[in-house]
Amino acid sequence: MSRLRRMAAPLVLAVGGGLFAAAPAAEAAPAACDTTSTPYTYVVTYQPGTRASAVDKELAAKCGTKVAYYAPIGVAIASSRNADFQEKIGVYRAYSGAKDVASQGAAASARSLGAVRTLEDTRSVAAADDLSAQQWDMKAIHAPEANKIYQGSRAVTVGVLDSGIEATHPALRNAIDARSSAGCVTGAPDLTPASWQPTTSDHGTHVAGTIAGKDPAAGFTGVAPGVRLASVKVVNDAGYIFPESAVCGFVWAAEHGFAVTNNSYYIDPGMFYCPKQPGDAAAFEAVRRAVQYSTHRGVLNVAAAGNSGFDTTAQTTDPNRPHPVDSSCGILPKAIDGVVKVSSVGYQGTKSSFSNYGEIDVTAPGGDFGQTPPAGEGPSCPLSSVVGGGYGSKCGTSMASPHAAGVAALIASRFRGIPPQLLARVLEGEADAVKCAATETECTGPAKNNSYYGHGLVDALDAVR
């Protein structure tokens, strides 16, 4: 855990013998703060419980201003125009994702938002009177049968930490809880409706529909249409999710009684954050504290495994940033203890070609362009709601994760107040085992706990009966 560095005590020199003691040397005047350069936002770590006045004092002395301060976890969100602000605070205590992006240049920034994200673009728009026949993903986890028994409780809220949710969408307008929604892009919660609705991406709207959408006129139904959704916008208009946004989102979830959050993203700009490296250490610690705070307050956090198609436990390089990666490093937020990590399967029930693997808790449908359903059963990628009141398909572990979050919400509805650790165990226990196929040579472990599918394919029907 990071600690405040103590200010050095002033040096006192004894002067003896003479009638007149020498006057102490005047302290050098502090350099003026930069008032013209581009401001960047930082996460800054303190001892949990540090007084806000102490935070304000240090930030002001080091040319920063407070955007938000989360005292229970000792994390401040600060803004500064000074290029040396991180050095002034301490390179293991402060980090700015936006400044890191700017320093990498356009080519490196493009890598951060490259193929792993464009995979999840809306590929096709469904046009049919009844979409239920095209929802092979829901059939794979027995959601239609589960919905006949139980659709979840309105007392359960799932936080969708994403790019915003279209609150007027026919499948979502009855599910959105505006009072529990907030924009967290700046690192400080904004309750205005415009702050938590989508602007440049339909990603969050698609995720939301999978969790709890219901549109009888179109025949579309999500996993748990009886629960409520909160839109917590953490994705900025450029497509980045920086540490300060995620910290705000997890704290918001903790303090507003969410039972589950879905996190279909990794924190930018690095794919891996390393707690022993400058800058990374502050980001890792800030997010870790926020996630664990939410867990302690009763939230189960569910996250996508990622779309790079590699073993996350065996990486030695970061595909987004030039820094070494070892076993202490991880993709945030899924690397934090207690977060449910979800891999993806396609129509045939085998791992999606793009899905990360290695340390997996459960698997769920995320599609695969190489696993094409028969005619009439829908596109290769899961179908869900998109902005403009329509429907479309997307592939990705981002689409798998909300299936797991929806099943978790059904379990949380049945067992109100269930602790997140127990909720995770029930989710895993009710999953259907998926063993490694003979051809899946990189898949290791038994059928009920392996590196491709974790404890198995989530099962909505088993969750409600």
From TrEMBL:
Write the record's keywords in alphabetical order, separated by commas: Hydrolase, Protease, Serine protease, Signal
**Gene Ontology molecular functions:** peptidase activity
Q: From which source organism is this entry?
A: Amycolatopsis bullii
Signal peptide coordinates? 1-28
Q: Name the domain of life this protein comes from.
A: Bacteria
Matching entries from PANTHER family are given as:
CEREVISIN-RELATED, PEPTIDASE S8
- List the catalytic residues: 162, 203, 398
Its GO biological process annotations read: proteolysis
Hey, which family's this protein in? Belongs to the peptidase S8 family.
Q: Where in this chain does the record put each Peptidase S8/S53 domain?
A: 154-456
Designated name of the protein: Serine protease
